[in-house]
Amino acid sequence: MTSFSLKIVTPDGLQYDGQAEEVIVRAVSGDMGILAGHANCIAPLGMGKATVVADGKRRYAACIGGILSVMNGNVTLVPTTFEWVENIDRDRAERAYEKAQAVLQDKSATPTDIRLAQAKLRRALVRKSVAGNR
Amino acid sequence: MAGISAKEIKTRIRSMESTKQITKAMEMVASSKLRRAQSRVANSRPYFEILYNSITDIVQQNADLSSPYLTQRPANKAIYVVIAGDRGLAGGYNSNVLKMAQAEMKGKDVTALPVGRKAADYFKARNIPILTQQYAEAEDMTVGDCFSVAKQLCKAYLAGKCDEIVVCYTNFVSVLTQTPGTLRLLPLVHTKSRQQSSDILYEPGSVEVFDAIVPEYVGGILYGALCESRAAEQAARRTAMDSATQNAQDMIADLSLKFNQARQAVITQEITEIVAGSNSSF
């Protein structure tokens, strides 16, 4: 399969820099697959699983927020959080999930707390589902 | 010995020594913090650069879009995000960035968003309106904070509360050099002529894409600027404390010489007196 150059950078560093044959990410409007020769394209990312196919091998990651851009054949993924499946701390995600649930059950929680808890819950769910896929 | 007695010199040496110990300790703390900050800068730099380049690309390639983020309005009101440190004793770090911010702000209707206690104090003292004091601690600011600030700024920009958003920070060039710099976050500048045909696919739609991407971009750039500034602060502090320690050492050496001279003078005088006394008894 033809490959294209892919770069994945997060505030924590460069996560991937090299050739890939296919990328599937969760954009805000749904899953998007990118193959070589894709038209120039910009899409904001949602929260979900990202799949990178390089050398015929599939790698999975949790990918949250950010931007996907395809410019002249170069694909750049600039997410806020990007964790390869092997780097996901499952226990931490589990703990975050339970904590967020507890806040959401709590009737005395303030609207800001609830909003934060909801965001945390969503992130934890993404991590858990990606890690469960291993 | 002329002027100062040996005892006075001794007290000064002792106080110099304790100052030296403090500056030495501060230098060591700054060094270890610098190491951490440096690795963070090294990690975030590619993000900072790629994010900046891809947004510039998008803006350049884009021809037909009339997003409010791209339209240049007469810059009447501006928000300046100024990143300085929480503490002093860092050489020219705080004053350089604040001076530059002040020069940039001249003649504009400015609201400041200080990051770092020194910046907050500076604008308070000069009666410059402050957007929020929430981020007065630069040390505690996280990535999440950067993104929430960005959201807030974009909202203010879209609502027409400001026409321009600029960030003032310090570039960490190397351990020995740090240069203050400014970066205009909004509106996005369109430098090339608008002749290129736009063939970019916006998913789901151009307006939604820009609405989602721009806060992300602003947040990312702010975080990058914060990382640079933090590393620059520690580097500046380390250099300042290193030279302070050096100065203290020089002064101690100088004072010890004076002390020894004074002590020697006292001994010589005593001997002279004894000799004179024994001579006169014959």
Task: Tell me what the structure shows.
- The complex is a heterodimer of chains A (134) and B (282).
- By secondary structure, chain A is of the alpha+beta class.
- Chain A has 2 domains: 83 residues, F0F1 ATP synthase delta/epsilon subunit, N-terminal (ATP Synthase, domain 1, Sandwich), CATH 2.60.15; 43 residues.
- In chain A, helix 1 packs antiparallel against helix 2.
- By secondary structure, chain B is α/β, with parallel strands linked by helices.
- Chain B is 60% helix and 12% strand.
- Chain B starts with 5 loop residues before the first helix and ends with a helix.
- Chains A and B meet through strand 1, strand 5, strand 7 and strand 8 of A and helix 1, strand 5 and helix 5 of B.
Task: Offer a concise description of the structure.
Chain A has helices spanning 90-105, 111-132; strands spanning 4-10, 13-20, 22-27, 30-35, 41-44, 47-54, 57-71, 74-84.
Q: Distance N terminus to C terminus of chain A?
A: 25 Å
Distance between the termini of chain B: 31 Å
**Integer-rounded radius of gyration of chain B:** 29 Å
Mean pLDDT of chain A: 86
CATH class of the largest domain in chain A: Mainly Beta
CATH homology superfamily name of the largest domain in chain A: F0F1 ATP synthase delta/epsilon subunit, N-terminal
Q: Poorly predicted ranges of chain B (pLDDT <50, ≥5 residues)?
A: none
| Order of secondary-structure elements of chain A | EEEEEEEEHH
Helix content of chain A: 25-40%
How many beta-strand runs of chain A?
A: 8
CATH classification, class level of the domain at 44-237 in chain B: Alpha Beta
Strand arrangement in the largest pleated sheet of chain B: 2-1-3-4
